Amino acid sequence: MRILHTSDWHLGRSFHRVGLLDAQAAFLDHLVATVRTREVDAVLVAGDVYDRAVPPLAAVELFDSALHRLAAAGVPTVMISGNHDSARRLGVGAGLIERAGIHLRTDPAAAGTPVLLTDVHGEVAFYGLPYLEPALVREEFGVRKARHQAVLAAAMDRVRADLATRPAGTRSVVLAHAFVAGGEPSDSERDITVGGVAAVPAGVFDGVDYAALGHLHGSQRITERVRYSGSPLAYSFSEADHRKTMWLIDLGAGGEITAAERIDCPVPRPLARLRGRLDELLADPALSRHEDAWVEAVLTDPVRPPEPMARLAARFPHALSLRFEPEQTEDSAAAASYAQRLRDRDDRQIAEDFVAHTRGAGPDAGERAVLGAAFDHVRLDLTRREANG
Question: What is the C-alpha separation between 314 and 334, in angstroms, rounded?
Fold first, then answer.
């Protein structure tokens, strides 16, 4: 069976205030064309169809058009909700849409109920695990602690239990939206940390033939059978070196992966991250290749130059982001900026640092637990508000 694995469309998202709807439409054109020309048997969309819980109308219309075109192609599509989606909204009408071959899996309770598709070698069971917010699904899965690993492991137990009832030789595919250990994140993914832990081990997917993952925006292979497709478009400058692709997976008669090919996605405009003094960036002939790119410039001038963005845009008309990191001098070497001190530190660590700064000693284990619970509560409250519009 030939599977096209994609995820993280983020329909409705912009890039530094530049609308991407046309680029997203071009990607969906490419996806439908690939389905037809490469004789795909099933399309998988592993979450984050939309960029937010209440997407703009234009994004909904684009999604609606994509569903109609995939249904018209006669190729089954299985998709799950991600942490950016409102599972309830995305799942509206799922029963009716399923009659057209579009299988929306947004209910955690249905984790052990597969979509069954058939090829010449028999059945393939596709299990859709939507994004599992631990605090919201812990009772459904009967886990003691609201942790990503616990709820995902419980969902996979249901998958394996159902698979055990299937005829011998039934092949299996799981769609999941999670941060799996070993994956390389970028700046454009929303943090899903709970209790200080975001990643789950790849071994949680043992027992299935292929795990089609969503959430991380870089296409990557965690193991031979566990892969991220990545987002079809770049959504931050941290993705400047990404090759945006979909996975074309051939699943053999015994569940083996006989072929795995990366299908390139259309690039609306390349990204470039430039660093140096402004005059150097404006004069360096080697940078001519970036003049049509979306540009992020990091200026290292010791003194901020006048009108830097206007001058930069004169050479790089698509410059979108400007940051300043002055070269260190003897006077500034000992005083890093506040932003530099906070870089790569999460909210919990920043709060703990603040406690240490204000009273001269960091929080003890009990206080760290209270801080962690407070941050988890706030994040969960935001998730609920987004889900409810």
Answer: 35
Contact criterion met (CB below 8 Å) for 244 and 236: no
Instruction: Tell me what pLDDT residue 139 has.
Output: 94
Pairing verdict, β 18-19 and 14-15: antiparallel
**DSSP H helix total and E strand total for the chain:** 11, 19
Closest C-alpha to 41, from 122, 119, 104, 105? 119
Cβ atoms of 47 and 81 closer than 8 Å? yes
Q: Residue type at 32?
A: V
Q: Which residues pair with 260 in a beta bridge?
A: 249
12: left (phi over 0), alpha (psi -120 to 50) or beta: left
pTM here is: 0.84
Chain CA centroid to CA 156, Å: 20
- What does the CA dihedral 356, 362, 366, 368 come to, rounded to 10 degrees? 70
Is the pLDDT assigned to residue 332 strictly greater than 60?
no
334: left (phi over 0), alpha (psi -120 to 50) or beta: alpha
Amino acid at 241: D
Which one-letter DSSP state was computed for residue 10?
-
Which DSSP category does 146 fall into? -
Q: In whole angstroms, what is the distance from residue 67 CA to residue 49 CA?
A: 12
